[in-house]
Amino acid sequence: MALLEISNLVVEFSTSSGPFRAVDGISLTVDTRQVLAIVGESGSGKSVAMMAVMGLLPFNAKVTADKMLFEGRNILALTPAQRREIVGKDIAMIFQEPVASLNPCFTVGFQIEEVLRVHMGMNRRQRRARAVELLQLVGIAEPERRLSAFPHQMSGGQCQRVMIAIGVACNPKLLIADEPTTALDVTIQKQILDLLMRLQQEHGMALIMITHNMGVVAETADRVIVQYKGRKMEEADVLSLFESPRSNYTKALLSALPDNATGDRLPTIASYLGPDGTFTEAV
Ligand SMILES: Nc1ncnc2c1ncn2[C@@H]1O[C@H](COP(=O)(O)OP(=O)(O)OP(=O)(O)O)[C@@H](O)[C@H]1O
Protein backbone atom coordinates (compact mmCIF):
# COMPACT_ATOMS: atom_id res chain seq x y z
CA MET A 1 0.00 0.00 0.00
CA ALA A 2 1.35 3.43 -0.96
CA LEU A 3 1.77 5.99 1.82
CA LEU A 4 -0.01 8.65 -0.22
CA GLU A 5 -2.11 7.88 -3.27
CA ILE A 6 -3.82 10.61 -5.25
CA SER A 7 -5.84 10.04 -8.36
CA ASN A 8 -7.24 12.72 -10.65
CA LEU A 9 -6.87 15.67 -8.28
CA VAL A 10 -8.59 18.82 -9.54
CA VAL A 11 -8.45 22.18 -7.76
CA GLU A 12 -10.57 25.00 -9.08
CA PHE A 13 -10.63 28.52 -7.65
CA SER A 14 -13.68 30.70 -8.07
CA THR A 15 -12.39 34.13 -8.99
CA SER A 16 -14.03 37.42 -10.04
CA SER A 17 -13.25 36.52 -13.66
CA GLY A 18 -14.74 33.02 -13.37
CA PRO A 19 -13.46 29.58 -12.35
CA PHE A 20 -9.72 28.98 -12.61
CA ARG A 21 -8.37 25.43 -12.70
CA ALA A 22 -4.96 25.46 -10.99
CA VAL A 23 -4.60 21.67 -10.78
CA ASP A 24 -6.05 19.63 -13.60
CA GLY A 25 -6.17 15.88 -13.01
CA ILE A 26 -2.91 15.17 -11.15
CA SER A 27 -2.30 11.59 -10.00
CA LEU A 28 0.64 10.48 -7.90
CA THR A 29 1.76 7.94 -5.34
CA VAL A 30 4.45 8.24 -2.71
CA ASP A 31 5.84 5.20 -0.96
CA THR A 32 7.35 5.02 2.51
CA ARG A 33 10.90 6.46 2.52
CA GLN A 34 10.57 7.65 -1.08
CA VAL A 35 11.68 11.10 -2.23
CA LEU A 36 9.37 12.46 -4.91
CA ALA A 37 10.21 15.75 -6.58
CA ILE A 38 7.47 17.81 -8.21
CA VAL A 39 9.08 20.18 -10.63
CA GLY A 40 7.67 22.88 -12.86
CA GLU A 41 7.70 26.59 -13.46
CA SER A 42 6.02 29.15 -11.24
CA GLY A 43 2.23 28.90 -11.36
CA SER A 44 2.13 25.27 -12.51
CA GLY A 45 0.04 24.27 -9.49
CA LYS A 46 2.71 22.45 -7.47
CA SER A 47 1.98 24.20 -4.17
CA VAL A 48 -1.78 24.24 -4.67
CA ALA A 49 -1.82 20.44 -5.20
CA MET A 50 0.05 19.85 -1.95
CA MET A 51 -1.98 22.46 -0.03
CA ALA A 52 -5.03 20.45 -1.13
CA VAL A 53 -3.50 17.39 0.56
CA MET A 54 -2.90 19.42 3.72
CA GLY A 55 -6.42 20.92 3.61
CA LEU A 56 -4.94 24.41 3.72
CA LEU A 57 -6.60 26.01 0.71
CA PRO A 58 -8.89 29.04 1.10
CA PHE A 59 -12.68 28.86 0.81
CA ASN A 60 -12.73 29.83 -2.87
CA ALA A 61 -10.98 26.54 -3.74
CA LYS A 62 -12.96 23.49 -4.78
CA VAL A 63 -11.00 20.26 -4.37
CA THR A 64 -12.10 17.00 -5.99
CA ALA A 65 -10.27 13.72 -6.54
CA ASP A 66 -11.16 10.17 -7.46
CA LYS A 67 -8.82 9.13 -4.65
CA MET A 68 -6.82 10.88 -1.96
CA LEU A 69 -5.61 8.18 0.41
CA PHE A 70 -3.05 8.47 3.19
CA GLU A 71 -2.13 5.03 4.56
CA GLY A 72 -5.32 3.80 2.90
CA ARG A 73 -7.58 6.40 4.61
CA ASN A 74 -9.61 8.71 2.43
CA ILE A 75 -8.39 12.17 3.53
CA LEU A 76 -11.23 13.99 1.78
CA ALA A 77 -13.85 12.09 3.78
CA LEU A 78 -12.33 12.91 7.19
CA THR A 79 -13.95 15.40 9.56
CA PRO A 80 -11.85 18.54 10.21
CA ALA A 81 -10.90 17.15 13.65
CA GLN A 82 -9.82 13.78 12.19
CA ARG A 83 -7.85 15.56 9.51
CA ARG A 84 -6.04 17.73 12.07
CA GLU A 85 -4.87 14.53 13.78
CA ILE A 86 -3.01 13.59 10.60
CA VAL A 87 -1.97 16.98 9.25
CA GLY A 88 0.89 18.48 11.23
CA LYS A 89 1.67 15.11 12.79
CA ASP A 90 1.86 12.33 10.19
CA ILE A 91 2.04 14.76 7.26
CA ALA A 92 3.96 17.99 7.79
CA MET A 93 4.82 20.78 5.38
CA ILE A 94 7.53 23.42 5.29
CA PHE A 95 7.28 26.49 3.13
CA GLN A 96 9.28 28.74 0.85
CA GLU A 97 9.53 31.82 3.10
CA PRO A 98 10.80 30.61 6.47
CA VAL A 99 10.73 34.03 8.16
CA ALA A 100 7.16 34.72 7.03
CA SER A 101 6.05 31.18 7.90
CA LEU A 102 6.91 31.62 11.57
CA ASN A 103 4.69 33.75 13.79
CA PRO A 104 6.62 36.98 14.58
CA CYS A 105 4.82 37.40 17.93
CA PHE A 106 6.04 34.19 19.57
CA THR A 107 9.46 32.80 20.41
CA VAL A 108 10.70 29.90 18.33
CA GLY A 109 10.63 27.76 21.47
CA PHE A 110 6.92 28.45 21.95
CA GLN A 111 6.21 27.62 18.32
CA ILE A 112 8.04 24.30 18.46
CA GLU A 113 6.48 23.38 21.81
CA GLU A 114 2.98 24.23 20.56
CA VAL A 115 3.16 21.42 17.98
CA LEU A 116 4.33 19.01 20.67
CA ARG A 117 1.51 20.10 22.99
CA VAL A 118 -1.22 19.76 20.35
CA HIS A 119 -0.11 16.54 18.68
CA MET A 120 1.97 14.65 21.24
CA GLY A 121 0.24 15.70 24.47
CA MET A 122 3.61 16.30 26.18
CA ASN A 123 3.85 18.17 29.47
CA ARG A 124 5.88 21.37 29.85
CA ARG A 125 9.15 19.68 30.84
CA GLN A 126 8.95 17.07 28.11
CA ARG A 127 8.20 19.76 25.53
CA ARG A 128 11.16 21.86 26.59
CA ALA A 129 13.53 18.89 26.46
CA ARG A 130 12.24 17.80 23.05
CA ALA A 131 12.46 21.36 21.68
CA VAL A 132 16.14 21.55 22.72
CA GLU A 133 16.74 18.15 21.13
CA LEU A 134 15.02 19.29 17.90
CA LEU A 135 17.09 22.48 17.63
CA GLN A 136 20.21 20.39 18.12
CA LEU A 137 19.01 17.97 15.46
CA VAL A 138 18.63 20.76 12.89
CA GLY A 139 22.06 22.21 13.73
CA ILE A 140 21.25 25.31 15.77
CA ALA A 141 24.01 26.16 18.24
CA GLU A 142 23.19 26.97 21.88
CA PRO A 143 19.69 25.54 21.58
CA GLU A 144 18.56 26.35 25.15
CA ARG A 145 19.31 30.03 24.58
CA ARG A 146 17.88 30.15 21.06
CA LEU A 147 14.52 28.83 22.22
CA SER A 148 13.74 32.28 23.61
CA ALA A 149 14.62 34.08 20.36
CA PHE A 150 11.94 35.62 18.15
CA PRO A 151 12.02 34.86 14.41
CA HIS A 152 13.29 38.36 13.52
CA GLN A 153 16.35 37.73 15.70
CA MET A 154 17.38 34.80 13.51
CA SER A 155 18.70 34.59 9.94
CA GLY A 156 16.63 33.16 7.07
CA GLY A 157 18.65 29.94 7.16
CA GLN A 158 18.14 29.57 10.93
CA CYS A 159 14.39 30.22 10.54
CA GLN A 160 14.23 27.49 7.90
CA ARG A 161 16.02 25.15 10.34
CA VAL A 162 13.37 26.03 12.95
CA MET A 163 10.61 25.34 10.39
CA ILE A 164 12.22 21.96 9.69
CA ALA A 165 12.40 21.29 13.45
CA ILE A 166 8.66 22.03 13.68
CA GLY A 167 8.04 19.86 10.61
CA VAL A 168 9.84 16.81 12.00
CA ALA A 169 8.84 17.40 15.66
CA CYS A 170 6.20 14.66 15.65
CA ASN A 171 8.20 12.23 13.49
CA PRO A 172 5.97 12.60 10.41
CA LYS A 173 5.67 9.78 7.91
CA LEU A 174 5.58 12.31 5.07
CA LEU A 175 7.23 15.71 4.89
CA ILE A 176 6.26 18.08 2.09
CA ALA A 177 8.95 20.70 1.44
CA ASP A 178 7.68 23.54 -0.75
CA GLU A 179 10.70 25.24 -2.34
CA PRO A 180 12.53 25.00 0.99
CA THR A 181 15.70 26.68 -0.28
CA THR A 182 14.45 29.23 -2.80
CA ALA A 183 14.52 32.20 -0.42
CA LEU A 184 18.02 31.43 0.90
CA ASP A 185 21.61 32.23 -0.12
CA VAL A 186 23.30 29.62 -2.30
CA THR A 187 25.66 28.40 0.44
CA ILE A 188 22.80 28.10 2.93
CA GLN A 189 20.66 26.32 0.29
CA LYS A 190 23.12 23.44 0.19
CA GLN A 191 23.20 23.14 4.00
CA ILE A 192 19.40 23.06 4.22
CA LEU A 193 19.12 20.45 1.46
CA ASP A 194 21.75 18.30 3.17
CA LEU A 195 19.87 18.63 6.45
CA LEU A 196 16.56 17.61 4.87
CA MET A 197 18.11 14.60 3.16
CA ARG A 198 19.88 13.52 6.36
CA LEU A 199 16.63 13.73 8.35
CA GLN A 200 14.73 11.92 5.61
CA GLN A 201 17.20 9.05 5.72
CA GLU A 202 17.64 8.90 9.49
CA HIS A 203 13.93 9.08 10.25
CA GLY A 204 12.79 6.98 7.29
CA MET A 205 10.34 9.67 6.17
CA ALA A 206 8.90 10.01 2.73
CA LEU A 207 9.62 13.43 1.25
CA ILE A 208 7.83 15.41 -1.43
CA MET A 209 10.17 18.11 -2.66
CA ILE A 210 8.45 20.90 -4.59
CA THR A 211 10.96 22.82 -6.65
CA HIS A 212 11.61 24.61 -9.90
CA ASN A 213 15.29 23.79 -9.64
CA MET A 214 16.52 20.80 -11.67
CA GLY A 215 19.74 20.75 -9.61
CA VAL A 216 17.69 20.12 -6.46
CA VAL A 217 15.81 17.35 -8.28
CA ALA A 218 19.05 15.66 -9.35
CA GLU A 219 20.50 15.80 -5.83
CA THR A 220 17.50 14.61 -3.90
CA ALA A 221 14.82 12.70 -5.77
CA ASP A 222 14.10 9.04 -6.45
CA ARG A 223 11.14 9.86 -8.71
CA VAL A 224 10.12 13.04 -10.45
CA ILE A 225 6.83 14.49 -11.65
CA VAL A 226 7.06 17.32 -14.14
CA GLN A 227 4.06 19.63 -13.98
CA TYR A 228 2.95 22.40 -16.34
CA LYS A 229 -0.23 24.48 -16.14
CA GLY A 230 -1.74 22.14 -13.55
CA ARG A 231 -1.16 18.97 -15.59
CA LYS A 232 1.37 16.19 -15.24
CA MET A 233 3.65 16.24 -18.27
CA GLU A 234 5.85 13.35 -17.28
CA GLU A 235 6.69 11.02 -14.43
CA ALA A 236 9.92 9.05 -14.30
CA ASP A 237 12.69 7.91 -12.03
CA VAL A 238 15.33 10.57 -11.70
CA LEU A 239 17.98 8.97 -13.94
CA SER A 240 15.57 8.30 -16.81
CA LEU A 241 14.25 11.83 -16.59
CA PHE A 242 17.68 13.37 -17.05
CA GLU A 243 18.97 10.79 -19.54
CA SER A 244 15.93 10.32 -21.73
CA PRO A 245 13.16 12.85 -21.10
CA ARG A 246 10.00 11.96 -23.04
CA SER A 247 7.85 15.07 -22.82
CA ASN A 248 8.79 18.12 -24.88
CA TYR A 249 8.24 20.26 -21.81
CA THR A 250 10.81 18.26 -19.80
CA LYS A 251 13.21 18.56 -22.74
CA ALA A 252 12.61 22.31 -22.76
CA LEU A 253 13.28 22.57 -19.00
CA LEU A 254 16.50 20.58 -19.28
CA SER A 255 17.78 22.47 -22.29
CA ALA A 256 17.17 25.74 -20.44
CA LEU A 257 19.79 24.77 -17.84
CA PRO A 258 22.90 26.90 -18.41
CA ASP A 259 25.12 23.77 -18.22
CA ASN A 260 23.30 22.32 -21.22
CA ALA A 261 23.62 25.45 -23.35
CA THR A 262 24.93 24.83 -26.83
CA GLY A 263 24.77 28.36 -28.24
CA ASP A 264 25.02 31.95 -27.04
CA ARG A 265 21.38 32.04 -26.01
CA LEU A 266 19.31 29.56 -24.02
CA PRO A 267 16.31 28.13 -25.90
CA THR A 268 12.87 29.30 -24.79
CA ILE A 269 10.02 27.03 -23.76
CA ALA A 270 8.06 28.18 -26.81
CA SER A 271 10.57 26.60 -29.18
CA TYR A 272 9.52 23.18 -27.87
CA LEU A 273 5.76 23.60 -28.32
CA GLY A 274 4.05 21.20 -30.69
CA PRO A 275 2.24 22.44 -33.83
CA ASP A 276 -1.02 22.71 -31.85
CA GLY A 277 0.64 25.04 -29.33
CA THR A 278 0.72 22.44 -26.53
CA PHE A 279 3.28 20.09 -25.03
CA THR A 280 3.16 16.32 -25.46
CA GLU A 281 2.28 14.60 -22.19
CA ALA A 282 4.29 11.48 -21.47
CA VAL A 283 2.70 9.95 -18.40
N1 LIG B 1 -6.47 31.63 -3.65
C1 LIG B 1 -6.30 31.61 -4.97
N2 LIG B 1 -7.23 32.13 -5.80
C2 LIG B 1 -7.06 32.12 -7.15
N3 LIG B 1 -5.98 31.58 -7.77
C3 LIG B 1 -5.01 31.05 -6.98
C4 LIG B 1 -5.10 31.04 -5.55
N4 LIG B 1 -4.00 30.44 -5.05
C5 LIG B 1 -3.23 30.10 -6.11
N5 LIG B 1 -3.83 30.45 -7.27
C6 LIG B 1 -3.31 30.26 -8.62
O1 LIG B 1 -3.07 28.88 -8.83
C7 LIG B 1 -1.96 28.73 -9.74
C8 LIG B 1 -1.00 27.73 -9.20
O2 LIG B 1 -0.32 28.29 -8.08
P1 LIG B 1 0.82 27.53 -7.27
O3 LIG B 1 1.19 28.39 -6.11
O4 LIG B 1 0.40 26.13 -6.99
O5 LIG B 1 2.01 27.49 -8.31
P2 LIG B 1 3.44 26.85 -8.12
O6 LIG B 1 3.64 25.91 -9.24
O7 LIG B 1 3.59 26.28 -6.75
O8 LIG B 1 4.36 28.11 -8.31
P3 LIG B 1 5.39 28.83 -7.30
O9 LIG B 1 6.65 28.07 -7.46
O10 LIG B 1 5.49 30.23 -7.82
O11 LIG B 1 4.78 28.74 -5.92
C9 LIG B 1 -1.37 30.10 -9.95
O12 LIG B 1 -1.79 30.60 -11.20
C10 LIG B 1 -1.95 30.92 -8.81
O13 LIG B 1 -2.11 32.28 -9.17
TrEMBL record:
Protein's UniProt keywords contain Methyltransferase: no
Keywords for this protein: ATP-binding, Cell membrane, Membrane, Nucleotide-binding, Transport
Compartment(s) where it occurs, according to its Swiss-Prot or TrEMBL record: Cell inner membrane
Main location: membrane
Transmembrane stretches, start-end: none
GO function terms (MF aspect): ATP binding
UniProt source species: Labrys miyagiensis
InterPro entries: AAA+_ATPase, ABC_Ni/Peptide_Import, ABC_transporter-like_ATP-bd, ABC_transporter-like_CS, P-loop_NTPase
UniProt record similarity statement: Belongs to the ABC transporter superfamily.
Alphabetized Gene3D superfamilies for the sequence: P-loop containing nucleotide triphosphate hydrolases
Name used for this protein in its record: ABC transporter ATP-binding protein
Signal peptide from the UniProt entry: none
Chain ranges of the ABC transporter domain: 4-254
CDD domains, per database record: ABC_NikE_OppD_transporters
Any one Pfam family match given in the protein's UniProt record, by short name: ABC_tran
SUPFAM superfamilies reported for this sequence: P-loop containing nucleoside triphosphate hydrolases (SSF52540)
SMART domains on file: AAA (SM00382)
Keyword Cell membrane attached: yes
Membrane topology: Peripheral membrane protein
